[in-house]
Amino acid sequence: MRTVIFDLDGTLADTSADLIASANHCFRAMGAGDVLDPVADAATAFHGGRAMLSLGLTRLEKHSDGEVERWYPELLAAYGAAIDVHTTLYPGAMQAVTALRDAGVRVGICTNKPERLADTLLTRLGVRDAFASMIGADTLPVRKPDPAPYVAAVERAGGSVAQSCLIGDTTTDRETARAAGVPCVLVTFGPTGGDVAALEPEELLAHYDDLPALVARLLPVVAA
């Protein structure tokens, strides 16, 4: 069964402003004010909470792995309390998902966001039921770019890894697809969009309107 697995942050949804806000909550608690900028630092947001804390603490000349781990639970709590204030789905994303499903393609999600937070966000956005699987950072003992979460997302969606592809936005997604031996599609409309061509994915996606045709090329229907 043909299957398309999506990354979440920076791929299906622009979550950067809410992620940055959660990091700035921590920096304000330190007495430092808003250290990260929701626009200039949006790309860092898509690398996760620890990356945002590392960047901010480095700017404050207070960086250490211990400080990052100390504040990470606070960041997650702040993010969970205000997870969908600014977050929006990218234009055409769910129309493309619907078109894929109508064509008999299974769809799922593999994200490095903690599973509970990812599930909450998708539910609040009203789209959780559109996806047959959802694997988060803590669903398995390993996370992307290890291929195991991707494989689990495909299998839980009822698909076959040999007839699947990954839609993402960062080098983590590119490395995951390579490790799993599947085609990778990287979106060009997010904060890292100008750089993803250098990662040499099998396809680039400039707008979700183009995804159904792109998937048809990458995953042609196999005759019975």
UniProtKB/TrEMBL annotation:
Gene Ontology cellular-component terms listed: cytosol
Protein name: phosphoglycolate phosphatase
Source organism, top-level taxon: Bacteria
Species: Primorskyibacter flagellatus
GO biological process terms, semicolon-separated: DNA repair
InterPro entries reported in the protein's UniProt record: HAD-like_hydrolase_sf, HAD-like_sf, HAD-SF_hydro_IA, HAD_sf, PGP-like_dom2
EC number of this enzyme: 3.1.3.18
Pathway: Organic acid metabolism; glycolate biosynthesis; glycolate from 2-phosphoglycolate: step 1/1
